[in-house]
Structure formats: C-alpha cells, structure tokens
Amino acid sequence: MSHSTMPNVAVRPVTMDDLPAWWEMRLRALRDHPEAFGQSYEDARIQAFDDIVREFRERWTANDNRLLLACNDAEIPLGTLGIFRQSGSRFAHRMNVWGVYTLPEWRGQGISRALLAEAIAYARSLPGVLQIHLTVTTTNVAAKRFYERAGFIRYGREPRALLLPDGPIDEDLMVLMLDNDSGPQR
C-alpha cells in the first residue's frame, strides 16, 4: 500500500484502550524486523497480555515515561515510540528513546519524524533533562541518518549488542544534547 499524501497524524500517549492494537503493532515490528529490537518476537509472543498491561501501568504511565502512538484520523495506529527517564539522581538528566517503529506501508510519510519531534519536545519540557539517548543497529543506515537529521550524534559503538540466530549485531550509541542550542542539523 502506497500513500502519496501525508496522513493527518496525531501523536499522543498510548492509553489502556490502545494497548491491544499497540501490542499487535509491537509484535509485527519484532517479527518483521528482528535485527532492530532487543526483544525477540518469540519471547514477546509468549508473554501473557496481563503482563503487558502490568508493565504498561508500572513503566509507561509512571514517572516521566511515555509510550507514544501516532494515529490517523480513524484512530488507526501507524507508529510508536517510547521515551523513558533513567532512574537515580545521577542519571535523571538522561532519557532514552525506545521501540521506534512505523508500519512499513506508512513509511516515508513523516510518521517517525512526528513521533520523535513529540518525544524531544516532551523531554525538553521536563525539568533537569539534558540529553536523550538511543541505540540503533549499525546496519540500519536509514535510521542512523534519520536520527542524525534530528540532531543526534554517535558517541560510541557496542559490539555484539544483539545476538541473533544469524550472528551478532553491533549497535551505535547516539545522543541528543538538549542544552545545545545549535538545534537539529538538516
């Protein structure tokens, strides 16, 4: 399916009512792109939905953590992104982006850009947050370029970060310094 015009997209926090559709999208991401996520499809698939609900309540609706969803006018989920604040007084200045995914049939329409922009704006609104971290597999060149355009820079590489059946995959460590007023590089 190809979409020639940008859909009318709303980015908002995932609600309890969204959770089943969000979980189906998450499973699709893990199944179709095993090299891009730390959790395997097989591990996720066997989780009881009650455990998903509990994790959602404990992790994504607590503190400064957010699980975001991009939906079209019909409230159909098109993409997702999680952002969480690290715990502990020495790490509370850091947030992490997690689980970025846009349905393949909606890629190239600005969905991930809208999700990331919302996450960055949210992080900037929180007192004391100075930087946002993420990891991306070294083989995912398009994602690395996307993050670089948003202002993230690579500061390291974790060898064998993921061990897949086909072998290990390295991940690049990237950071966006929020107290740097130079803004995103386009």
Describe the structure.
With 186 residues, this protein is of the alpha+beta class. The protein has one domain (10-177): Aminopeptidase, CATH 3.40.630. Helix content is 30%, strand content 31%. The longest helix has 15 residues, at 111-125.
Provide a quick synopsis of the model.
The protein is an alpha+beta fold and about 190 residues long. It has a single domain, classed as Aminopeptidase.
Number of strands: 7
- What would the average pLDDT be, to the nearest integer? 89
> In order across it, which strands form the biggest sheet?
1-2-3-4-5-7-6
Q: Assign the CATH architecture.
A: 3-Layer(aba) Sandwich
In percent terms, what proportion of residues is strand? 25-35%
Supply Rg: 16 Å
Number of helices: 5
CATH topology: Aminopeptidase
In CATH's first tier, which class applies? Alpha Beta
* Largest sheet geometry: 7 strands, mixed
In total, the number of domains comes to 1
Question: What general outline do the C-alpha atoms trace?
Answer: globular
**Straight-line N-to-C gap:** 28 Å
Poorly predicted runs are 182-186
Ordered list of secondary-structure elements with their pairings:
Layout: E1 10-13, H1 19-32, H2 41-45, H3 49-60, E2 66-71, E3 77-85, E4 94-102, H4 111-125, E5 131-137, H5 141-149, E6 153-164, E7 167-177
Parallel strand pairs: 4-5
Antiparallel strand pairs: 1-2, 2-3, 3-4, 5-7, 6-7
